[in-house]
Amino acid sequence: MPSAPTKSQPGKAVETATAVQRTAAGKALREKASRASHGEWEPATRRRDPVKVLEDQAKGRVPELVPIRYGRMLVSPFTFYRGAAAIMAMDLANTPQSGVQVQLCGDAHLSNFGAFEAPDRRLVLDVNDFDETLPGPWEWDVKRLAASFEIAGRDRGFTPKENRAAVLSATRHYRKAMREFAAMRNLDVWYARLDVETLIADLAKVAHRKQMKAVKKNVKKAGKKNSLKAFDRLVHEVDGEPRIISDPPLLVPIRELASENQQEELEEQLLELLGTYRQSLKGDRRHLFDSYRLVDIARKVVGVGSVGTRCWVLLMMGRDGQDPLFLQAKEAEASVLERYAGASDFGNHGERVVEGQWLMQAASDILLGWLPAVGLDGRKRAFYVRQLWDGKRSVEFETLPPEGLAIYGRVCGWALARAHARSGDRIAIGAYLGKGKSFDEAIADFSVRYADQNELDYGALADAAKSGRIQTETDLD
């Protein structure tokens, strides 16, 4: 079994080493874990029951929402994979590691990459989910990303050859990008980002007209997904005041979750907590935040793996009735990686998520912040806050042809390499990966084997639902 990664800040050990020394060190790591070894996958002899892993996760979540989580996971092996980050973290801990640490996304499947508006209002494409972020071995993110392409391809009914092409595209472009970042100046790595306009221009060189039409349509939708759009969809007027629409259990206003007396107490607590969140913002953003007033709040069900965690949407209004701002305050639990990569250096998991996002993303939400909070049950919890919709949109892989999935692999591979290059020793990783295809092919082999395991685990959850061990509920979200 590979040794557990040492607990240290990614990139800390490279401060005094020269580029030549870091290159040599990276190549030497092939002795510790050969590139071909990453193709290996065998479940541990005493591997924990995957359903039990999910049940343990559910213990601290909102009980009435947990069946929705299971229902969403059982739609397909791919949706199961989206919610199974804790299961894969357990499995990745037993895979080969070169020993280089980076800031991990922790849940780097293809649906956790997408477009969103940067502070300059240009659409960029990047990693966009950091609930599980933590320092750890860079290979863990790469393997979770690569396997997601294999599983998504199977979900679409693509051939094994087409699936492998998509996986190889993601890993090859991760490797090539990392080697390019290794040769760049530190500041240039930090400023690097993938604007959607540039992406469209590059895709036009290799994609078919029909594919480009779909890409442009998706980008156009992303540009319109903002607080005004959320206001139109989620709000109606009650006695002349905007109020969040009730759509239980997916969207439940706080007035339906608490008594009138509790509401008044909660509103006072919220105002105090928003002050704490305000302190996590930079000075100019505090000024912007102060120009809004809180109008309403509701509990919202989001995602697949996150279902059951507490997530609140806050409706705020600015200069008039046409100036809404929707914030999302999402509960941050301990990362699923902590058990295997070590505890976070941050005492508040909301701060862990925010700091990880700032480190990995090329451009982050200007209102990204964090706060501690006391829930309706009286327990202290951690939350991070961002805009609910800020041009954020993930790829609709359900409409992608095989070639489109491979093209998307290029994008995700590049974006993940850039995120890792900011926090870890990009020179050592690039040297370890090398110019050849050995690592790419090994990860493609791993992806096939792990996709098989994912199907077995999906079947185990389905059996648990049939036997009544777990309760499921479907929804239309």
Identify the strand order in the major beta sheet. 8-9-10-11-13-12
End-to-end separation in angstroms reads: 41 Å
Low-confidence stretches: 1-8
Largest sheet: 6 strands, antiparallel
Fraction in beta strands = 5-15%
List the domain count as a whole number. Answer: 2
Mean pLDDT: 90
Fraction of helical residues? 40-55%
Approximate shape = globular
Number of helices: 18
Strand count: 14
User: Rg, please?
Assistant: 22 Å
Structural class: alpha+beta
Structure description:
The structure is a single chain. The protein is an alpha+beta fold. The chain has two domains: 257 residues, no CATH class; 161 residues, no CATH class. It is built from 18 helices and 14 strands. The radius of gyration is 22 Å and the shape is globular. The N terminus is likely disordered.
Task: Set out the fold topology.
Elements: H1 19-32, H2 50-58, H3 66-73, H4 77-83, H5 85-92, E1 101-104, E2 113-117, E3 123-127, E4 134-137, H6 138-156, H7 160-182, H8 186-191, E5 194-195, H9 196-203, H10 209-224, H11 227-234, E6 235-238, E7 241-244, E8 251-253, H12 260-279, H13 283-289, E9 293-300, E10 311-317, E11 324-331, H14 338-341, H15 349-360, E12 369-374, E13 380-387, E14 393-394, H16 402-423, H17 426-433, H18 438-467
In short:
With 477 residues, this protein is an alpha+beta fold. It is built from 18 helices and 14 strands.
